[in-house]
């Protein structure tokens, strides 16, 4: 009797449980794949741009950090060598140190004996080459920071076109799933483009600041060297 009552109660409760709304969750992978073929292609392109931005950022960051390392006694040694007329020793010291500053000073040392303007011009030309080397591929980050959101907006337009196309060809009965796929494409690609653009923009500006510090260091040491040559003997 009791078992029969329990079974009847369970049968009466099951329909009520089936009618309850179930909370739906959506993972990142599902969010990408539900955006349709166009959404997947654009998200894949944005992912490639993100990998490129991260690689360029860390590669340039380590290179700039290495370039900023200058021995505190380097300029003091150069001053002693130049003051004592040991030009060859000064040149050997510059050659032994691998940094933008040492290469600029080496260019100046090799021009000792010529007019000061010629030495200054030679150092400036060498400085431009060093700056160009430091900024290698940094402009790509700037391009990614601007292009990624635009690519994301392209996905938004494509998604909206798909949604409008389905509405126009629904014949009075709109397929909610197909319509939702177009909206997923629109929203997902926008978010992806903005994320990649923001990451690339922050990375670009951080590298610019780091590069400027190295440039100021180069300028300070170059002026110190020119002041040394300008001192009365």
From TrEMBL:
InterPro entries: ExbB/TolQ_transport (IPR050790), MotA_ExbB_proton_chnl (IPR002898)
Ranges of residues in domain MotA/TolQ/ExbB proton channel: 98-219
Subcellular location: Cell membrane; Membrane
Coiled-coil annotated spans: none
Membrane-topology descriptor: Multi-pass membrane protein
Keyword Oxidoreductase recorded: no
Keywords for this protein: Cell membrane, Membrane, Protein transport, Transmembrane, Transmembrane helix, Transport
GO CC terms: plasma membrane
Key word Protein transport present: yes
A family per Pfam: MotA_ExbB
Transmembrane segments: 38-58, 138-162, 182-204
Record GO biological process: protein import
Main location per the UniProt record: membrane
UniProt family annotation: Belongs to the exbB/tolQ family.
Protein name: Outer membrane transport energization protein ExbB
Organism in which the protein naturally occurs: Olleya namhaensis
Lineage: Bacteria, Pseudomonadati, Bacteroidota, Flavobacteriia, Flavobacteriales
């Amino acid at each position: 009797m009791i078992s029969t009552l329990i079974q009847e109660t369970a049968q009466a409760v099951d329909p009520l449980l089936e009618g309850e709304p179930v909370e739906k969750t959506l993972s990142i992978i599902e969010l990408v794949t539900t955006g349709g073929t166009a959404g997947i292609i654009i998200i894949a392109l944005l992912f490639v741009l993100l990998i490129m931005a991260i690689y360029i950022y860390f590669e340039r960051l380590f290179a700039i950090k290495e370039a900023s390392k200058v021995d505190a006694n380097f300029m003091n040694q150069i001053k002693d060598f130049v003051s004592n007329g040991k030009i060859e020793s000064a040149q050997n010291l510059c050659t032994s140190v691998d940094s933008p500053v040492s290469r600029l000073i080496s260019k100046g040392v090799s021009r000792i004996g010529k007019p000061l303007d010629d030495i200054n011009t030679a150092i400036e030309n060498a400085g431009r080459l060093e700056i160009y080397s430091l900024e290698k591929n940094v402009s790509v980050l700037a391009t990614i920071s601007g292009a990624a959101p635009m690519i994301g907006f392209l996905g938004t337009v494509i998604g909206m076109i798909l949604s409008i196309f389905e509405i126009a060809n629904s014949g009075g009965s709109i397929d909610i799933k197909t319509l939702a796929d177009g909206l997923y494409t629109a929203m997902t690609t926008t978010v992806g483009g903005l994320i990649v653009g923001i990451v690339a923009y922050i990375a670009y500006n951080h590298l610019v600041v780091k590069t400027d510090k190295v440039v100021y260091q180069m300028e300070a040491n170059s002026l110190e060297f020119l002041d040394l040559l300008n001192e009365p003997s």
